[in-house]
Amino acid sequence: MSFVFYILAAITLAGGLAAVLLKNMVHCALAVSIAFAGLAFLFLGLDAQFAGFAQILVYVGAVAILVVFAILLTRSSDTPKDGGVFSRTWLAGLVVAAAVFAVIGWAVLSSVGGLPHEAAVPTVTVLQIGQALMGPYVLPLEIVALLLTVATIGAVIVAIHEKEDAK
Amino acid sequence: MTPLAGYLLVAALLFAIGLAGALTRRNAILVLIGIELMLNAANLNLIAFWRYGPHPEALTGMMFAIFSIAVAAAEAAVGLGLVISIHRHAQTADLDEMNRMKG
Predict the structure, then answer these.
(1) Which domain holds residue B65?
(2) Which residues contact B24 (CB under 8 A, 6 or more apart)?
(3) Could you write out the DSSP letters of every residue in A4-18?
(4) A101, A106, A126: best mutation site toward chain B, by most B Cβ within 10 Å?
(5) How large is the ipTM?
(6) Which CATH number fits the domain that encloses residue B21?
(7) Fewest CB within 10 angstroms: A81, A130, B17, B95, which?
(8) Which residues of chain B are within 8 Å of residue A133 when distances are taken between CB atoms?
(9) Taking CB atoms and an 8 Å cutoff, what residues of chain B touch A115?
(10) Is B25 a domain residue?
(11) Tens digit of pLDDT at every position of chain A (167 positions)
């Protein structure tokens, strides 16, 4: 376990925690983009360069901007008048999340002995990834292309402004 | 502790944080952010198993993570579009106040 891993993990988890806990929604969007960037660097630390840069492009670049636009369009940046940002059933949610973490953490810790140790660094070039995407993974690639087209058109149609007389 | 176990624990913690955010926050956009955090934690698991698994040259976990990123981006676009549409209809993004399905 290297020192860099601990720093990156701490940044990622702190960003995630801040995104969930902060009151101002714009601060939450900033914190979640820090968490996304920390995850991208964790991917780079795992020698998955392509996934790391895709993570930066898609999440830090696109999803964070989308979230900021949605926050500003729905005027969620002002804190609610009654002050609370948590739901009425927050205690149940917290208990469920803690129980899920307990189960996953117990599963990981009880299987530590069977997990593989240091593995050789895989050398994966972008050429190999491209050939895999065009070879055995060409059908999922086409389906993702179709899904992204449908999702883009669908999002525009759902969010499009209805005229008052059309109702 | 092996490196893989460290990555798995970080992913589990991030998943729990995302789940807590999705279950406890009142604002619909924050719920979507929590779901994105959970998807990212799953991606970290996939990449970590790919890196320390027996056949990294097969690229299976990496491909799964890349497709998962693409699907999560589509999910974010549609989800935020829905939130904006609901906000226009009900003038709120507060989930505690959205208690009927009829418009």
Answers:
(1) 3-97
(2) A20, A86, A87, A89, A90, A93, A94, A97
(3) HHHHHHHHHHHHHHH
(4) A101
(5) 0.91
(6) 1.10.287.3510
(7) A81
(8) 63
(9) 2, 4-5, 8, 52
(10) yes
(11) 688 999 999 999 999 999 999 988 899 999 999 999 999 999 999 988 899 999 999 999 999 999 999 998 887 767 666 667 788 888 999 999 999 999 999 999 998 877 777 777 888 888 988 999 999 999 999 999 999 999 999 999 988 877 665 54
